[in-house]
Automatic annotation (TrEMBL):
Gene3D superfamilies: 2.30.42.10. This is PDZ domain-containing protein. GO terms for cellular component: cytoplasm. One of its GO terms (biological process) is G protein-coupled receptor signaling pathway. Residues 23-74 form the PDZ domain. Pfam families: PDZ. One of its GO terms (molecular function) is guanyl-nucleotide exchange factor activity. InterPro entries: PDZ (IPR001478), PDZ_sf (IPR036034). It comes from Rotaria socialis.
Length: 74
């Protein structure tokens, strides 16, 4: 069975002091990724469904998504 995931790089290596870069993998569940985003470079996380895939991966509201890599697990 093929499962879809998103590998997301949140934040930027040249961030101002106090910001943190996270590398997370969001494993899509039957309800999707469990987040709502807005913007373009960077993309901001507007909402995260409690208990959803993004929530389990550690994504928080107001996180900035800089890069997304789509991968498939077979």
């Amino acid at each position: 069975m093929e499962q879809e995931r998103l590998s997301s790089y949140i934040a930027d290596p040249d961030l101002p002091t106090g910001l943190e870069q996270k590398n997370v993998i969001i494993q899509r569940d039957r309800f999707g990724y469990g987040l709502t985003v807005s913007g373009d470079n960077p993309v901001y996380v507007l909402s995260v469904r409690e208990g959803g895939a993004a929530h389990r991966a550690g994504i928080n509201i107001s996180d900035q998504i800089i890069k997304v890599k789509k991968a498939f697990i077979i």
